[in-house]
Every structure is written in structure tokens, then in C-alpha cells.
Amino acid sequence: MFEGWPPPVLDPAGPYASSVTLLSWILFAMGAGVLLVVLAALWIALFGRRALQEKLGGKKVIWIGGLAFPLIVLTALLVYGLSLTRHLSDDIAGDEMRVRITGEMWWWRVAYLDEAGNAVIQDANELHIPAGQPVVLELESGDVIHSFWVPRLSGKLDMIPGRRNLMRIQADAPGVFGGQCAEFCGGPHALMGFTVIAHTPARFAQVMQARLRREATPQVAGGEGARLFDTAGCSACHRIAGTGANGLAGPDLTYMGARRTIGAGIMPNNRGTLMGWIANSQAIKPNNRMPPYRVLSSEELTTLATYLEAQK
Q: Domain Cytochrome oxidase subunit II copper A binding spans what residues (predicted)?
């Protein structure tokens, strides 16, 4: 099992997830309390004394228990819940770190933004953040409704075509945190995972600086692997910064070799899984949008996988 998986839903690792978890426990407790009251009323109705049954069926009990109590309690819970979670989606303030995440069928497009909202680093299916700092996620969808959810770092929020939703996440300490699309989006929805890696601020700065340099790298020769990547048609759908590959239909592969997983969080990333994915991803994740490449020999698959492993 990968580090961070399965993502526990009641084990918060940051302030935003903690507020959502607290609200969840309050709702669980209230639900349990109401269930006990209903069971007690049912027991009285079936087996209680006649006097208790008459009181239970009286207008006063119905007005208080059937109308006033749920109205007051649900209103209080709504107000408390909104006040507890409103800071998750506050407007972007000052120099907060911003990342745009776009839900695709069935993977995640990731773009690190500058203060003006321009994408300066592009990636897919994996997000790097500094521990101890809030990060604003701008959630969008490129096709259907998805839902972004990393349970240990924040709540879940829908990604709706034509709309941008804001959500904050934060990890109190370095670690790896699993996520999952929480809205059925068709096909292999259940195989649409996500990974967040929280670094120390110093390590995070190193990672981002290295990637900024990588994005600015002039086109480089990649040998036989780059040639195969181009002639097999991979560059039509995938981008690799610094090369002639600029496809946008599929995940950005500039940092493919550095990712922990492939296929949007469903398999560990190594040469063997890369070769298997290229040869026949449909057998691994049925109905994903990448066609099988059975025409490639094992030597060619090895060359391509080696080339992708080098993209960091």
C-alpha cells in the first residue's frame, strides 16, 4: 500500500481538516442522540404504560419534539457549521500560495500560480506544499463535475465546469497524504486518486526552485527515448517542459520520474509499471483516455519508460 493510503477520513493533519472533523463528530453525536430519543419513543409507543403513551401522543410533545426541537437544533448546527468552515473558502489574501487544480476524466491537472494567477509550473496528479502554511487551491473542472478531497488536510469541494471554487489546505508537519475524487464522474472514477506531499519550508523552496529552473530549460535532446516519445504520438497528448512535446490533452509528464504513483494514484511509479501502463493502460484502468500501445516491442517500452523516469 502507498504511503498516505488509504486516506483516513477522521484523522486530521492540519487546522482546516480539524474543523471539518470536529463538525463531523458533532453531527455524529447529534445523530446518535436523536436516534436514541426516537428509539425510546418507539419503545414507549409499543410497550410503555398507557399514561406515558398518552403523553407521548399529546400536542405539547408533538410541537416541542416534532417542530421546535429540530428547528432550533438544526438552525444552531447550520450557523455553527458555517462559522466553523467559512475560512476554508475565504477570498485569496495577499501573498498566499496558490495552486490551480483542474479535474479531468480521470486525472488531475496541477498548475502552481504566481501572484498574478499565471501558471509557472505545471504538473499532474501530485501536489507539493510547505508544511505549516495554508495553500489556496483554485478548483476547476475541464469536463464533468468532480470533487477534490484530501481528508487529512481539508474538507471536500466540488469542481464544476465553468466555475472556480476556492479551498484551503494545510499540513501541520511534513508527510504524504492521499486524496480521492469524491463525486462520481463516470468510468474509472474510483481510480482517480491524488497525492499531496508536504515538505519542510526549506525543502519545499528547493523543490520549487529546481522546477522553475526545469521549466525554463531550453529544448534538450533526449536520445532514442525522446524520438520514440515523438514518433509514437505521445507528444500529441503530453507535455514535457524544455522539449518539443506540448500536448495538453493528457497529464503533463515534465516531472513523471519524480512522481510517487502513475495512473492518478493507483500504482507505484517504477519502470515496470510504466512499461505496463504504456503497453496497455486499458487493462489497468479501463475506459481511461490513453490508447494501448501494443505495437511497441519490449525494448521500445523499456526505452520509453527509461526516458520518462529521467523526467524530474
A: 94-210
